[in-house]
Design goal:
Pfam families: DUF885 (PF05960). With 600 residues, this protein is an alpha/beta fold. It is built from 21 helices and seven strands. Strands 1-2-6-7-5 form a five-stranded mixed β-sheet, with helices on one face. A hairpin with a 2-residue loop joins strand 3 and strand 4. Helix 15 crosses helix 16. It is globular, with a radius of gyration of 26 Å. It binds 2-acetamido-2-deoxy-beta-D-glucopyranose (9 copies). The site of one 2-acetamido-2-deoxy-beta-D-glucopyranose (NAG) has 3 residues, from helix 15.
Length: 600
């Protein structure tokens, strides 16, 4: 049977033929064209997969409790379309799915179970904990559950299609430590390497726990509630400092990224905590995720009496001032420390990419410093529990997350080469046709020049240096700043936006034959898509940010602002179709609807 698609996240990487060099030396952003769904929503969607499956089980439970009879697996008539098959019941599939769900929330207390009460959240909420032994425990738990489900004898032919799908999905989900690609598998060891280009890692999305866990669920009523907030915020500090320690361990164990990859990770992390990166630890008070905790309404249940008593005991600081201070101390400061570690300290240990790039050559033999191998400092290439680290194996553990089958990295590589053999002659043919040259080499050279000429880009001339350097990254880090300090880039961006909007509007009618737009089977999104600049200096390609099931905000089509050149124009049709309609906009819309249904 064909395994099912991985919903929730997707990563397509198209790397140009390495012989073709565009733009700068080294890692040119143009060379790496990567199109992704924004990471932030990923975890939520992945949890959704299991929840969809669990919904069926929950319906079943309701049925059982209302009938009041003990469970007799084989005696319940299969009447309704959505009831479970005999085989699902016999094999205990619904119970297993529910257990996976419960286990997920137990091991990820910063990701709130939508069914949990505020009371329970106040007890259970803890920040993301990257302690190696805790990562190991999460990994081992997932793998134990995976073994359990793999060891069950299930006659998949006797399952309903939806159940078969749930079974395939839950296996994929457990194989990847509850459906995540990075920093989650203890045995891969990538959790020592720090943030990556997409920041698809829990360390990059601490804000979600803060805003819903603490903001929404810890509204204080008395002094002990305020102390509880402090206790919970301290777990954030501990987790962030632990993450720094993990990265330091990565240096000692030879698990480090290339210089370019480190830079990309740093830029992405700074995007996640932009205000802190711009304005130091006090910048945390301007981050979106603390807004609820700064709102006067958060304190409406603190009486004047309690506030005064608090003031007397805390050097004249009232409750809201105290919480501000906690946010700076336990969140702003450690995040600032992490950003500074990543940018100033860790960076010096990253390796030149002609020595190691990706995971293939990891772990390194020696510690590197400022681009030089320190041969008197050999690494200790083992996990804390003694197993040997192995970059190629780590790659294969991570890669399978992005596949729907059991192909090995080598098989994928061979497949790519096969595809190249198919497509390359076609491209040469196009080159001959477009240039009118009959000689292959001449045609290829002329075609490359055409693709690389300024007419293929939205900017007619190179962007000024002062709109491209570190200073510009800082000054042009939001829309107002970009308009003011990067006027050339901003003007060219408008041309790209115009083209993107035009293409989007021309693509939509072409999707009409493929989908239901009305009625019960309608699957097409109705939310509009706004164009937005992506201010991450390491961002190399367009990306998509979803709306929600109720469409209370528009979806986003993000366009990278700091590319060497804007474009190329000829990519807009294919990339636009990939990101917007019929691409991610349709895909994510369907998932969000499914997610919605499973809860309501
Ligand atoms: C592409 O154009 C840029 C300048 O616009 C030039 O520096 C670069 O060498 C060109 N690359 C190729 C492969 O022609
Ligand atoms: C403080 O308020 C919480 C409700 O938010 C309540 O559960 C708790 O018992 C109260 N504690 C004290 C000491 O009054
Ligand atoms: C952080 O920024 C604030 C506001 O700009 C400033 O008052 C404070 O002194 C800065 N703190 C540090 C430690 O640099
Ligand atoms: C808490 O404050 C809200 C207003 O924000 C109010 O509606 C509610 O009654 C208060 N609850 C208690 C128990 O005082
Ligand atoms: C707490 O103190 C700050 C600073 O003195 C003040 O601006 C704020 O209004 C106070 N909050 C309450 C609820 O009294
Ligand atoms: C990597 O590049 C640097 C500078 O570009 C060069 O000095 C060094 O020899 C190269 N190393 C390898 C292993 O090719
Ligand atoms: C190289 O490593 C040794 C042993 O850890 C250390 O004492 C020395 O300072 C390092 N040298 C450099 C240049 O980092
Ligand atoms: C030109 O390229 C095409 C496609 O790759 C190939 O079939 C053809 O043999 C080449 N012609 C010459 C003269 O090499
Ligand atoms: C770059 O220079 C132009 C012209 O002098 C100026 O308007 C713009 O603000 C500068 N941008 C930055 C980021 O410094």
């Amino acid at each position: 049977m064909e395994p099912l698609e991985t919903t929730g996240s997707e990563l397509d990487t198209m790397v140009d033929d390495s012989k073709v060099k565009f733009g700068r030396k080294g890692m040119s952003r143009e060379r790496i064209v990567t199109i992704v769904v924004l990471g932030v929503a990923v975890i939520i969607f992945i949890v959704g997969i299991v929840l969809i499956a669990v919904a069926a089980a929950a319906d079943k439970k309701d049925e059982e409790s209302s009938s009041g009879t003990p469970v007799k697996p084989t005696s319940i008539p299969v009447s309704s379309k959505c009831s479970l098959s005999e085989e699902a019941r016999r094999s205990g599939l619904p119970e297993f799915l529910s257990r996976v769900k419960a286990t997920y929330y137990k091991l990820h207390p910063y990701d709130l179970d939508p069914d949990a009460t505020t009371k329970r959240i106040k007890v259970e909420y803890v920040a993301y904990d990257p302690t190696p032994s805790v990562i190991k425990h999460r990994t081992d738990t997932a793998l134990t559950l995976l073994k359990e489900i793999n060891d069950k004898t299930i006659n998949t032919d006797a399952l309903k299609p939806r159940e078969r799908k749930a079974l395939a999905q839950v296996k994929h989900y457990l194989q990847h430590m509850f459906g995540q690609p990075y920093d989650v598998n203890y045995y891969a060891g990538d959790w020592m390497m720090g943030p990556n280009l997409f920041c698809w890692q829990p360390i990059c999305s601490l804000g979600y726990g803060v805003s819903s866990g603490l903001g929404i669920n810890h509204k204080p009523y008395n002094a002990s509630d305020v102390k509880l907030i402090e206790t919970k915020l301290k777990t954030h500090k501990a987790g962030i400092l632990q993450y720094i320690d993990n990265m330091k361990m990565g240096v000692r164990k030879g698990m480090v990224r290339s210089v370019e990859d480190c830079q990309a990770g740093t830029d992405a992390l700074k995007e996640s905590y932009k205000r802190i990166s711009l304005y130091n630890e006090t910048g945390v008070l301007q981050e979106w995720f603390v807004a609820t905790m700064l709102d006067p309404d958060y304190y409406s249940n603190i009486t004047e009496e309690i506030d005064n008593e608090w003031k007397n005991k805390h050097g004249g600081k009232n409750v809201s001032e105290t919480i501000k201070e906690y946010l700076v101390t336990y969140l702003g400061k450690p995040i600032h420390q992490l950003l500074s570690y990543v940018e100033n300290e860790h960076m010096r240990h990253c390796v030149p990419s002609n020595v190691s790039s990706g995971l293939a050559n990891l772990p390194l033999k020696y510690v590197w410093f400022d681009g030089k191998e320190n041969t008197s400092w050999p690494t200790d290439p083992k996990l804390p529990t003694g197993e040997p680290l192995n970059g190629p194996k780590a790659y294969s553990k991570i890669m399978s997350y992005f596949t729907t089958n059991a192909m090995t990295p080598m098989e994928v590589h061979e497949l790519g080469k096969k595809q190249l053999d198919i497509y390359y002659p076609m491209v040469v043919e196009i080159a001959r046709e477009v240039t009118g040259e009959t000689d292959n080499d001449t045609a290829i050279t002329k075609f490359r020049n055409k693709l690389n000429s300024s007419e293929s880009y939205f900017n007619s001339e190179p962007f000024p240096e002062n709109e491209s350097n570190k200073e510009a990254h800082r000054k042009c880090s939001d829309i107002d700043g970009a308009k003011k300090h990067c006027p050339k880039r901003w003007a060219a961006l408008q041309l790209w936006f115009d083209e993107a909007r035009k293409v989007m509007s021309l693509l939509e009618p072409k999707t009409i034959p493929f989908f239901y737009f009305t009625g019960d089977k309608a699957t097409t999104p109705t939310c509009p898509i706004d164009l937005l600049p992506d201010m991450n200096p390491s961002s190399g390609a367009q990306s998509y940010g979803s709306s929600n099931a109720d469409c209370t905000r528009s979806a986003k089509y993000n366009i990278p602002f700091f590319l060497n050149n804007f474009g190329p124009r000829y990519q807009e049709w294919s990339v636009n179709a990939h990101e917007a309609r019929p691409g991610h906009h349709t895909e994510v819309h369907i998932i969000s609807k499914m997610h919605f249904i499973s809860f309501h």
